[in-house]
Write a structure and sequence with these properties.
2 strands, about 200 residues, elongated, mainly alpha
Length: about 200
Amino acid sequence: MAFAFTHQRRVLIVVAVIAALFFAWYPPIQHQANAQVDAGLKRALISFASARTLNAIISVVQGTEMSVQPFGVGLTLTPGQVLDPINDLLEQFSSLMLVASVAFGIQKILLAVGGHFAVSAVVSAVLILWAWLALSDKSVTWVSRLVLVLLMIRFAVPLVTLGSDLIFQKVLAQQYQEQQSSLDLAARDVASRVPQPPAPA
């Protein structure tokens, strides 16, 4: 029984190390994660631009004044001020999209660092050292901790990126498209209502 357990443990160690070494040098994972970060960054920038455009148009509408003279009394009205709460929400949303864009940029940098040749080489060397110590029944406590840290550096960001993109595609993609279309439509609709300056004589 002890021999069978030891044999199974050795097999698991070898299989785990081979799998980790394979994925540490497997380019499609890195390429796909980069593509998903680029797509997320593009979505955030598009939403930011749309929100800022609508925000600017509403600001123009808010500054528009109307002069009326009911019963001979001169009044100046600014009907666009009723849009002030919406404008505030748009400013907050655009700020959020700007933060999201920065976050995607940082994520792209972390992907580049984790996917660098040197990181994969160090991960491979430490994995081989850990496997050799484990198969030799020697103490691997400190090496195990180092392996864990290096695996997090190498794989955490790509896995989180691919996982979050999968959730987005399955759950939020359609809602995002609908909201973005509504935002663009609202921008065009408000722009069409902005009073045009009189043509020069």
